[in-house]
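Ex. 9. Protein: non-specific serine/threonine protein kinase.
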Amino acid sequence: MVLSSLFCCFRGKKNRRKEWNYSDFLRVSYSTLSEATDSFSSANLVGVGSFGSVYKVVLVTPSHEAQLIVAVKVFNMLRWGASNSFAAECEMFRNIRHRNIVKIVTTCSSVDFRGNDFKALVYECMENGSLEEWLHPTVGTQNPPKNLYLLVRLDIAIDVACALDYLHNHCETPIVHCDLKLSNVLLDTELTGHLSDFGLARFLSKTNNVAANQSSSRGSVGYVAPEYKKGSEASTYGDVYSFGILLLEMFTGQKPSDHMFRDDLNLHTFVKMAYFERAIEIADSRLFLQGENHNIPIKYRERFSLEIQECLSWIFGIGIVCSSKSPRDRMDMGYVVTKLQCIRNILNGLYGCVSSNCDCVVCRRKMNPFFCRRTGTKFL
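Predicted C-alpha cells for non-specific serine/threonine protein kinase:
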C-alpha cells in the first residue's frame, strides 16, 4: 500500500469543475432570492452569523440554460452595524481576488415585499461547509462523522495563510480581516480553504500598517488580539494573532473558548507549556489514521514517530509565535507561508519516501534554525 495515500486521499484527484459565466447571474432581485429560498425557509438555512443568515440555494438564469449553487447571506437590517457590514464587504470584494478567498457572485440591495430595506450577498457555494463543522461537529447530528488528517489540515492552514499574506502584503491597499476563526474558513469540494466574511474588514494606512478608520468590533471571543482589548486600532498584527490561535486550534482540537481555559491559562499558554517534547500528547488524536504504523516497515517506525513530533512541534511553534502577546513579536504572514510550506514538503517526503531515506535537506535547513529543540528558543 502506498503510504502517501494515507493522508492524501482526501484531497483526491483534481476534479475538472465547470466554469460558470457569472455575468449570467449578475441581476438578482429580492423576489428571485425569496423564491429560490422558499421565502427564506429554515430548510435552506445553513448558518447564522453576527449580521445575518446564510442560505444555500440554486439560481437559474432567465433562459434556464444554466444554474449555479450559491450561498446567500441575507443581512438582518434591524441589527446595528448590518448596513455598514454589507457596505464593507461590497467594498472589499471590489478590490480583492485570490484563489483562497471566497468569490462573490453578485449583490442585492432592494426592498422586501413589506417595503423594508433588504440587502444580500451571493457567494460561490463551498460544498464542504466550514472548518468549524469539521473540527467541532454539533453533537447529535445525523451526518456521518468527518475528519481532516494531518496533511489535509496543514494544506488548509497554508490556504488561510496565503489568503492573509495576499490581503496584508499584495493588495494595492493592505486589508486586515479582523474576524478570522474556524467558521469563516470554508472548504470546497477538494477541501481547499477559502477565507470568508469580510464584514469587519478594514483598509489599512500604507504608512503605519494600521486601519485608517477605527471599529468597535474586531473579532470573536478567543481569537481577538490582546491589544484590541486595550483600544488599539486594527492592524495586520491582529490578524496574525488570530491565525496563531486558529493554527493551534486546528492541530490540538481545543477551542480557544473551552471552559478549561480560565485565569492565566489559555490555548497559547497550554501549547507553550507542552512545547517541544510533548507535541504528540497535546495534538488532536484525529490527525492520524488508526493503525497507520502497521503500514510502515519496523525499522522506519521510530524515525516516523520522531519526524511527526518534530513537524508538529514546528507547527505549534509557529502558532505560539504568531499568538505572542506583543504584536512586534509576531511573524509576517509571508514568512508563515514559507515555513508551513517547508513543513509540508518534509511531511510529503516522510509519507512518500519514508523507506528511501529522503531527508528533504533544503526544507530542513530552512526549518532547523527556526527553533532550538532543547529550549524552544525562537531564532527569527
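Check your answer against this statement. The chain has eleven helices and nine strands.
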